[in-house]
Every structure is written in C-alpha cells, then in structure tokens.
Request: fold
Amino acid sequence: PAWAPRAVPARGRKTRHDPPAKSKAGRVKLPPPVDPEELLVVQERYRQHRLVLSALRAEFRAEVLQKKREERLAAEGSPEELEEHRRLMAWNEEENARQRARREERLRKEEEEQKRRKSEIAEKRARKMEAFLEEKEKEVLQLQEEAKNFITPENLEARIEECLDNPRNYNFAIDKDGRIVRRTVLS
Amino acid sequence: ALSAGSRLLRGRGGHVVIRFALGGCTNRPFFRIVAANSRRARDGKYLEQLGCLDPLPNAHGEKVAGLNLERLRYWLGCGAQLSRPAEKLLGLAGFLPLHPMTVTGAERLRRRRQREQQPEAAPADGSAEPGTDS
Reply:
C-alpha cells in the first residue's frame, strides 16, 4: 500500500507531475562518492573483461558457423563429394600459397629496383651539385683575380696616365688571302 | 500477442538476452536462466531455457544452479547479450571470466571487515592496557 514505509523512495502518492514538497526545497542530491584509485582499477578490470568476452563471442560465433556449414554440406552431398571438396580446397590453398610466394618475390624485386633507382638519382643529383659548386668556386676565384686589375677611384688617375703614356695602335691591313699587316703609318 | 501498437511488432529491433526469469511463490523465489527477446516481459514467453538458479541456500548451505553450456555457447555465438546478474553467475561458474564487480565487491567487503576488526581490537587494547597499568 502507498502509506507503507519504504527504505528507498518510490512513487507512492504523487505522480511525476506533482511538485516536490516544501520540506525538500533545500535538498541537494549528490551522486554517490567515488574513490578515484578504485575507479581506475575497476575500469582497467572492465576493459580486460570486455576484451576476453569479445574474444569468447568470436569463438562461439565461429563454432556456430562451422556447425551450420557442416550440416548444410552433409545435407547436400555424399561422403565422396565431401572428400572431393576437401581435396580441392586443399589444392586451392596450395595454389594460393604459391601465388603469394611469387607475388612477394616480384614485389621484393621491384622494391629493390626502386631503391636502386632512387639512390642512383640521389647520387647524380649530388654529383651535379658538386660540379655546380665547383664551377661557381672557379668563377668566384677568377673574378677575384680580375678584381685586382679593376679600375677604382683611387687607381683612376694612375691608370689614365698609364693609358695616355702607352698609346696602342689597333690599325691593321688585311688582304684577300688573309695575311695581316700590323705595321702602319702611325706607329 | 502482436497487436497493432504492441511493443513486439517487427520493424524496430530487439535482441536476444540471456537473463533470469523469476518464478516461485511468496518468500520463495526461483530463477530460470532463459534466452528471450529483450522486449518480452521478464517472466513471459522465452526462446529457450538454459538453466536455473535457486537463490536460497539449501540444507548444506549451498546455492544450487544448473546450466546448459552447450546451448549457452550456441546462443552466445548467435549474438545474445547477457544481463548483469547472468554475467556474474557465469563468471562465478567459470564459463566466462570473473566479473570485475564481483572482485571489487569482495575487496570492499574484506576492507570493511578489517576496518571493523581493527577499531574493536584497538579500543579493546587501549582499554585493557591502562586497566592493567593502573
């Protein structure tokens, strides 16, 4: 009956749509206290338990399927057919294994090929880089050499004097046979 | 059993569960371990009975349960869920691994018993020693 005392609250007199009593106005409902270490331990245990359970379920499922298959086969054909079927399945397995081995060989060779090619390309690139650097080094050195002969604002006066002191004669005569004569009237 | 708006109508779902169906008389419970559709009543029509459990200890102080492991494997292989008490029972039986809460409950009980014993021992020693000293 509704007026009987209860250890745990249950809906007796009031429905869920009735408002709570005034005496319960300041009531604060807290969840049950949880020990964090214990919680971690319990979670770990649950994880392991679920792992084992799922493995067991998979086992049982495989068993059931196997039994169904065997029943179906037994219902269909005679023992000779089953033998034949098993033999052919075994042969198929062997074929698969052989093909797999061949495929793996092929893949391995191709990988090696790839690696070799890559290393070659890398080497070529390195060599090209080295050659390029060498070229640039040479050019830099050459420029440094030529820089000694450049005309700078300090050298300007001296060089002009030098040029004026040593006049060069660029005139020459050439005939149709290609003989050049450098001695002219001016020099 | 299948009316137009009944909960058992096909088309929405429901799964097989292995759970306890309560039977017996007043102050004398008796559980049957049963594989049933989850949407059936607790004591209603089931697919197959897989065992039974007597929750009251017998003359020798044992709680007796019977299980049909062969059919249990079949139903679990077909994808049946288990209710928590069913899992705990199967864990204790050894068919499945022990449920974590069984172990946790046992540890808590042991700790509580130790705590109750120590305060009894400590005040008993504390009250005895001054008595002997003085």
Q: What stands out?
A: Chain B touches chain A at residues 73-74, 76-79, 96-101, 103-104 (CB under 8 Å).
